[in-house]
Specification:
Chain lengths: 253, 295
């Protein structure tokens, strides 16, 4: 494990029942960088992302082999509490999924459960998180209203703010803009640029331009294997592997 | 036959079928009121509803159904008190906690309970529960409020449980994932996200369970004891409205005062059931945490 790596996977295999979705994945995520995971549908990139904060635990009949080290500790160790892991590794999903609660209650949902915060603490935390997610100006007067009234792009930024309110170390984003229009997408990409200095971001995307725009490193997956992992600039100009080149030039996928 | 004519015909036919069922319902209600209204020529509405004496065959007769109304409300409330926690908690267990193997047994078992004929439950209440209550609490009779409430609760639990379960099941997976991803435990997710999101469905389930209990006839006829007096303790016998109607209609001469008074009791029952439905509607709107997820 190099210094500056926050998450490292070692020979990870993952099974849905008897189907092997990931084979021998070794990948390192550097701290305070944006890493993009790309590849055709069904290549295992989302599966890997969900492995990193143990969200696959909720799918029946799945099995993990190998190690996922978060700050040097294997998160699949039996004595590790997955709740603790999920507090430190936040997640934003493909479809905006605010709770059917008020905007304020969405933001403070996690911190309130974690406990130990007064009402004023929660209020300033909500303001801080919404500012980080560049949503504050749009919602500061309607914090008590239902989050369901917001537009899709606003909902997704609310979900990012909600994840940030937990003050996580890592933010996992599973195709966070695939359900959004280009303007909302641009806002979220801009936002990721700003978040980089405080957080490590790992993003799964189908949009190769997006990967090229926002990420420092890119991993290309195909049929459950990590084919190539490199600096984003290199992957998109002079990839080492023929398959990577074929995918990014649109020959398949 | 042209296509547009056929379309029109199909539309008319469907409208016809839909209209028929509504017309039937309206006719029944019309009939109910027509037979009930003459009651108020020989007794005032106030005297009828709040009258403490129900002696329809005495001379002179007394037509006060207050004890019957109280009887209905008391057994319905107590049965709700028993059935709601059991029904809702079992729904939560089945939909969110039980491992698949347990779920596969429990779910059909509870639904089977809904298929029990009410006369069987009433019989059970009479020959098993009543003697046990009588012995255990040293009562003059085991046919009382407690017995009726327990039996009605058994009837209402499957309704409450299966409708609540549907409501819980339809909570989008995205909400649960969002909650888990924020470091919530399963217990916290159930309490803070899943149940609130299903609350309008759960309250509908509760009210429907109550409506089933208040309208249920056979069980209360068999186990409530049949005393037309306002109860003073939960071990007193009562005579809920449906039991009274069922027991007396056969003996009441056609279009007699007694006959009309029983129909008027039916109208009161109808109004109460409607009130339950309006409350259900109001509560479910009030509790609904606005709208579904949109993109």
């Amino acid at each position: 494990m190099r210094d500056g790596d926050i998450i490292v996977t070692q020979d990870v295999n993952f099974y849905y029942g008897s189907f092997r979705a990931l084979t021998g994945v070794n990948i390192s995520f550097e701290k305070n960088r944006v890493t993009a995971l790309i590849g055709p549908s069904g290549c295992g990139k989302s599966t890997l992302l969900r492995l990193l904060n143990r969200m696959n635990d909720f799918i029946e009949q799945t099995r993990v082999e190998g190690k996922v080290l978060f700050e040097g500790r294997n998160i699949y160790d039996p004595e590790v509490d997955p709740v603790e892991i999920r507090r430190r590794i936040g997640m934003v999903f493909q479809k905006p999924n605010p709770f059917p609660k008020s905007i304020f209650n969405n933001i403070v949902y996690g911190p309130r459960l974690a406990g130990g915060m007064s009402r004023t603490d929660l209020e300033s935390l909500a303001e801080r998180s919404l500012k980080q997610a560049v949503l504050w100006d749009e919602v500061k007067d309607i914090l008590g209203q239902s989050a369901m009234m917001l537009s899709g792009g606003q909902q997704q930024r609310l979900c990012i703010a909600r994840a940030l309110a937990m003050k996580p170390d890592v933010l996992l984003m599973d195709e966070p803009t695939s359900a959004l229009d280009p303007i909302s997408t641009a806002k979220i990409e801009e936002l990721m640029e700003g978040l980089k200095k405080d957080y490590t971001i790992i993003i799964v995307t189908h949009n190769m331009q997006q990967a090229a725009r926002v990420s420092d490193y890119t991993g290309f997956f195909y049929l459950g294997r990590l084919i190539e992992f490199n600096r984003t600039g290199k992957i998109f100009t002079t990839p080492d592997m023929k398959q990577t080149e074929d995918y990014i030039t649109g020959r398949f996928g | 036959m042209t296509r547009s004519f056929r379309e029109k015909l199909i539309r008319k036919a469907f409208f016809g079928f839909a209209a028929v069922s509504i017309i039937f319902l309206l006719l029944i209600i019309l009939f109910l009121f027509r037979e009930a209204l003459p009651t108020f020529q020989f007794v005032s509405i106030g005297r009828f509803i709040f009258g403490m004496e129900w002696y329809p065959t005495y001379e002179p007769p007394e037509f006060g159904i207050w004890p019957l109304i109280v009887g209905s409300l008391v057994v319905t409330s107590f049965s709700t008190l028993i059935a709601v926690p059991l029904g809702v908690l079992s729904a939560i267990y089945i939909s969110e906690i039980a491992p698949p193997a347990v779920k596969e047994i429990l779910k059909p078992a509870i639904e089977l309970l809904a298929g029990l004929p009410s006369v069987v439950l009433g019989f059970f209440g009479m020959v098993v529960l009543a003697p046990w209550l009588q012995d255990t609490f040293d009562l003059p009779t085991g046919l009382n409020i407690v017995n009726a409430s327990i039996m009605l609760a058994v009837m209402a639990i499957p309704t409450i449980s299966s409708i609540s379960e549907d409501a819980l099941y339809s909570v989008p997976r995205e909400f649960k994932e969002a909650s888990y991803a924020l470091g919530a435990t399963r217990h916290e997710t159930i309490v803070k996200v899943i149940v609130p999101a299903a609350l309008s469905g759960i309250s509908t389930a509760v009210i429907l369970g109550m409506a089933r209990a208040i309208g249920e006839t056979m069980v209360v006829l068999m186990v409530a004891g049949g005393a037309a007096a306002v109860p003073e303790s939960i071990f007193d016998s009562v005579r809920p409205m449906p039991a009274s109607i069922a027991a007396e209609m056969g003996e009441a001469p056609f279009r007699s005062n007694h006959y009309h008074a029983l129909f008027a009791t039916g109208v009161v029952l109808l109004v109460l059931t409607l009130a339950f439905n309006f409350i259900a509607d109001y509560v479910s709107h009030k509790f609904r945490e606005t709208g579904s997820a949109t993109l």
